[in-house]
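Budget justification aside, the reviewers requested a transparent look at the raw inputs and outputs of the sequence design task funded under Objective 1. We therefore reproduce one unedited record. The lines immediately below are the structure tokens for a 314-residue chain.
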């Protein structure tokens, strides 16, 4: 983890990423296409946009180990499952309910980081995490339904949260030696293949959609994927997966507000209050995580898997 080489304050790219991913649920709600088709074209269009920036790095894939190949495959598969579960949940429940459950991600990341990397979190940072999660709960509390349809959507959102936590932890490990753009390109490609197999196996049509649908697929690629997921993958070189997942707690705030303005979904006083609490908890967590990092000795830099200079992330 190379925190000290980031030339701009970390909150700037974090805010950009939060705003970008907040639009994801709006675009998904707008589309009538199956979520597996939305996810596939979302990532396929992203790959096309990334290719001019990554093609010179493709040769590096020849040097990776079988262990790293397996990790890339798992990361891409988990990402596809995340989109499938979470985007599917948006078809069954409200934006607030789905994004609130997605905000449980830091819990799974923190547990996974401790098991996989023995990565500890300070008590102060844990307090910030708990405060932010409580605020997120306030946002979605009034919308969490008790109908079978809402319960199914809630379960899908939880499953999506678990698998994206696994995806981020694998990314944290691989990005110690991988250029960020190459890592993102590789896992997106794997996820597109997984979606393609899924659609073909279930007989889901991958063509014949309206111009409006293709426009939504493109928006999903540009806004929440490039300026959201790709940006967060880049930041994993400088901050922990737990920090990124905490930043994503800002998504319920942005997504709920956008749903109120654009989709006419109701927004209660507790949800407004919860948004303020989320931001306060997020700020407290990030401040204490940074203090903990600065007070710790720098970790030894691992030797890259390939010779020659590595390409900077982003």
């Amino acid at each position: 983890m190379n925190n000290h080489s980031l030339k701009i304050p970390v909150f700037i790219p974090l805010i950009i990423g939060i705003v970008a991913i907040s639009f994801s649920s709006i675009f998904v709600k707008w589309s009538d296409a199956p979520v597996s088709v939305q996810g596939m074209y979302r990532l396929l269009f992203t790959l096309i946009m990334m290719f001019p920036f990554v093609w010179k790095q493709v040769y590096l894939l020849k040097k990776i180990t079988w262990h790293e190949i397996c990790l890339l495959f798992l990361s891409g598969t988990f990402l596809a499952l995340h989109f499938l579960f979470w985007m599917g949940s948006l078809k069954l429940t409200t934006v607030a309910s789905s994004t609130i459950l997605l905000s449980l991600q830091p819990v799974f990341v923190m547990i996974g980081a401790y098991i996989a990397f023995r990565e500890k979190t300070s008590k102060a940072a844990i307090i910030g995490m708990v405060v932010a999660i409580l605020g997120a709960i306030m946002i979605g509390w009034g919308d969490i339904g008790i109908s079978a349809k809402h319960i199914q959507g809630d379960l899908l959102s939880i499953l999506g949260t678990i698998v994206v936590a696994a995806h981020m932890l694998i990314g944290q490990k691989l990005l110690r030696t991988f250029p960020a753009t190459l890592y993102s390109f590789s896992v997106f490609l794997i996820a597109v293949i997984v979606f393609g197999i899924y659609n073909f196996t279930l007989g889901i049509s991958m063509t014949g959609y309206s111009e409006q649908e293709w426009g939504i697929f493109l928006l999903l690629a540009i806004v929440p994927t490039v300026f959201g997921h790709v940006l967060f993958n880049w930041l994993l070189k400088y901050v922990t997966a737990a920090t990124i997942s905490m930043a994503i707690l800002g998504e319920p705030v942005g997504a709920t507000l956008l749903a109120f303005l654009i989709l006419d979904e109701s927004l209660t006083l507790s949800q407004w209050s919860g948004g303020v609490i989320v931001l306060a908890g997020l700020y407290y967590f990030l401040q204490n995580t940074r203090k903990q990092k600065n007070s710790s000795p720098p970790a030894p830099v691992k030797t890259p898997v390939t010779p020659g200079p590595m390409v900077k992330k982003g």
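The longest helix spans residues 148-174. The chain has one domain: 3-294. Computational costs for records of this kind are itemized in the attached budget.
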